[in-house]
Amino acid sequence: MADPKADLHRYLQQAREALLWKLDGASEYDVRRPLTPTGTNLLGVVKHVASVEAGYLGETFGRPFPEPLPWTDMDADPNADMWATPDESRDEIVALYRRVWAHGDATIEALPLDAPGAVPWWPADRRNVTLHEVLVRLVAEEHRHAGQADIVRELVDGAAGMQQNNDNLPPGDEAWWAEYRGKVADAAARFAPEEARPAVRQLRLVVAADDYDDAVRFYRDVLGLPVEGAFQAGGGAHVTILDAGRATLELANPAQKRYIDAVEVGRDVAPRMRVAFEVDDASRVAGRLEQAGATVVAVPTETPWRSLNARLDAPAGLHITVFQELDPPG
After folding, report:
1. What is the pLDDT, as a whole number, of residue 330?
2. What is the mean pLDDT of the chain?
3. Whole-model pTM?
4. How would residue 328 be classed by pLDDT, with cut points 50, 70 and 90?
5. Going by C-beta distance under 8 Å and a sequence separation of 6 or more, which residues neighbour residue 74?
6. What is the mean pLDDT of residues 240-257?
7. What DSSP designation does 188 have?
8. Start-to-end Cα distance in the chain
9. What is the pLDDT of residue 22?
10. By the 8 A CB rule, do 96 and 70 touch?
11. What gap in Å lies between CA 236 and CA 110, rounded to an integer?
């Protein structure tokens, strides 16, 4: 026989577990960093949902959660429940959420679905509720935030899926997903306003590499460029397309080329074409590339325009710069 309370409880627990799963394998930085203009971050979503559930399955039914949650106080800073401060650890927030589960589970177990309650922070004319109504609301609330966390986690490192034991995604390797995303983007582009349609949609640098396998490993695994697509054809033909972020075409006359070489290297060294990669830490990346087989042409050097630039000769016969902007964009 159907048990509506058990059904609602099960769906609530699925949302709880899916939300915590989104933290698994992510670094301390990645669970905290904001990935949207409104600051949405993985650990903050968990902290928020713990706070919400503590209230709805606590004070609403005269069973207040026994621990203080100062970020929910009336005088707390706006959105204080939506991010983790440096002195709040991941383990503490996850443990808090699990204690909130236990407290909420006890409320669900103790009360019938028609048990009355009152939500103190709702307007007086509609604050009277039942356990049934609160459970429906919590299931919707926590699944909504689990979906929010799903998108944020995919933005972090590409990890996606509905639940740990059921990702609910079609099978497909990296190349399949790149092709699928391109198909979706192409369809959307047909409806873009005219001013949003650049004449050139992508700058792609095509390099014929005699050391193809070494070059792929170097730029994909060491420099960290994600694979956008990989294809092969008859006769041993192979190509790998790597996403190098935003592309620009820098055109310099011979005098400018000599000037840049003089600043960064101290002599005229670059070929007609040089490939530059902007990174967060030029010294660290240059060291990692050298360990992977690149030859350092010039150690990281601070330029008059406030960037830190290193030069290397790298696989595929490329002369490359890794550069770090020392001043944030104004």
Report:
1. 47
2. 90
3. 0.62
4. low
5. none
6. 84
7. H
8. 64
9. 94
10. no
11. 68
| Tokens standing for residue 83 | 């991010």
166 secondary structure, DSSP code: B
Q: How far apart are CA 305 and CA 286, in angstroms?
A: 20
Which are the contacts of 288, defined by CB distance < 8 A and separation ≥ 6? 222
Read off the tokens for 144. 């909504």
pLDDT digits (tens, 9 = 90+) for 131-169: 999 999 999 999 999 999 999 999 988 888 887 777 788
Distance CA 58, CA 139 (A): 16
According to DSSP, the residues that pair with 313 across neighbouring strands are: 295, 319
Domains of the chain are: 4-157 (1.20.120.450), 254-325 (3.10.180.10)
Residues 309 and 264: their CA atoms lie apart, in Å, by 7
pLDDT (tens digit, 9 = 90+) per residue, 107-119?
Answer: 999 999 999 999 9
Q: What angle do CA 125, 131, 134 make, to 5 degrees?
A: 65
Whether the Cβ atoms of residue 312 and residue 322 lie closer than 8 Å to each other:
yes
H or E segment and range at residue 238: strand 237-242
Provide, rounded to the nearest whole percent, the portion of the chain with pLDDT above 90. Answer: 62
Identify the bridge partners of residue 320 per DSSP, sorted by sequence position. 275, 312
Q: What is the DSSP string of 105-155?
A: HHHHHHS-TT-EEE-TTS-GGG-EEEHHHHHHHHHHHHHHHHHHHHHHHHH
Q: Based on C-alpha coordinates, what's the Rg of the chain?
A: 27
Return the pLDDT at 122.
Answer: 94
Q: What is the Cα–Cα distance from 267 to 260, expressed in whole angstroms?
A: 9
DSSP, residue by residue, 268-317:
----S--EEEE-S-HHHHHHHHHHTTPEEEEEEEE-TTSEEEEEEEEGGG
Q: pLDDT tens across 63-108, in order?
A: 999 999 999 998 999 999 999 999 999 999 999 999 999 999 999 9
- The overall longest dimension of the chain from CA atoms, in Å, is 84
**Which residues does residue 276 pair with via DSSP β-bridges, in sequence order?**
321
